[in-house]
Amino acid sequence: MRELGGETGNWCIVRKDADLKDALELMKKERVRRLPVIDHDRLLGMVSLGDLAVYGNTYDTEISEALTEISIPSRPTNL
Q: CA-based diameter of the chain, in Å?
């Protein structure tokens, strides 16, 4: 997680040279389907879980696990 400044709060990002497995783990941990890709604080684009699924068979298990984790609804903590 990295703060991009001001009132924007914290954002999950991935650097352009990040390992795909690390991106998958971050998506799973933070329960997001897309990550901004940056290079020296410059936005290059977005990578999605779907993009990684198209990449090939190498990460099929990790992609499936990440999608499962992301899709589990969170439970309210105030009940």
A: 43
